[in-house]
UniProtKB/TrEMBL annotation:
PANTHER family: PROTEIN G1-LIKE2, PROTEIN LIGHT-DEPENDENT SHORT HYPOCOTYLS 6. The lineage of its organism: Eukaryota, Viridiplantae, Streptophyta, Embryophyta, Tracheophyta. It is found in: Nucleus. This is ALOG domain-containing protein. Pfam families: ALOG_dom. One of its GO terms (molecular function) is DNA binding. Residues 1-53, 167-210 are annotated as: Disordered. Keywords: Developmental protein, DNA-binding, Nucleus, Transcription, Transcription regulation. It comes from Ilex paraguariensis (yerba mate).
Length: 224
């Protein structure tokens, strides 16, 4: 499989903050852009996730352009996505011990070694999630999404298992907390006192009801 020609792709693990947004257009009389109509507010800056997703998407498009031979997005497959992930290993910051290393499987090596630095599994997993969303946001069909291909999922699972053995850090699947139901008791009917004739509790409208509210938890990624 052909490889890329050394494009200067940014490190996905780099702690870049959200990119700044540039206002388009400006008045010629020394002022900034004037808002149309009174009370119109400027658009809020994109979130950190959206900024990172845009940078990841631009990096992947640049990788396709610099590929030999150049690739178009329509011809991109799961195999090309895996090739892209392997290409990003050169920018990795996670020490992954090889089989012959004396620190193989040691979570806290006492001394440095010559083992390579690679992208951590958690970073690759999050990257694929962002690129998968960006592909569909840019007009790609979900059924043709190369980032959701079975081959990509298998590759990520193999990276997860191999890094767990090499680093001695098991990636245990974090259990989602079960949503705790919050019972909201409704006050009994004010007029539902004791009946005057039978001496029993009045049953018409006096039963208490409960409303269960569930708190949705976001997906959790293991820390690397």
């Amino acid at each position: 499989m052909d490889s890329a020609s050394g494009a200067g792709a940014p490190d996905p693990n780099g702690g870049e903050g959200p990119s700044s947004t540039t206002a388009i257009g400006g008045g010629s009389g020394g002022g900034g852009a004037t808002a149309e109509g009174s009370g119109s507010a400027s658009a809020p800056p994109p979130s950190r996730y959206e900024s990172q997703k845009r940078r990841d998407w631009n990096t992947f498009l640049q990788y396709l352009r610099n590929h030999k031979p150049p690739l178009t997005l329509a011809r991109c497959s799961g195999a090309h996505v895996i090739e892209f992930l392997k290409y990003l290993d050169q920018f990795g910051k996670t020490k992954v011990h090889v089989t012959g290393c004396p620190y193989f499987g040691h979570p806290n090596p006492p001394a440095p070694c010559a083992c390579p630095l690679k992208q951590a599994w958690g970073s690759l997993d999050a990257l694929i999630g962002r690129l998968r969303a960006a592909y569909e946001e840019n007009g790609g069909r979900p059924e043709a999404n190369p980032f959701g291909a079975k081959a990509v999922r298998i590759y990520l699972r193999e990276v997860k298992e191999s890094q767990a053995k090499a680093r001695g850090i098991p990636y245990e699947k974090k259990k989602r907390k079960r949503p705790t139901p919050t019972a909201t008791t409704v006050a009994e009917n004010v007029g539902g006192g004791r009946s005057s004739g039978g001496g029993g509790e009045a049953s018409g409208g006096g039963a208490a009801t409960e409303t269960l509210s569930f708190r949705c938890l976001p997906p959790l990624y293991p820390d690397d």
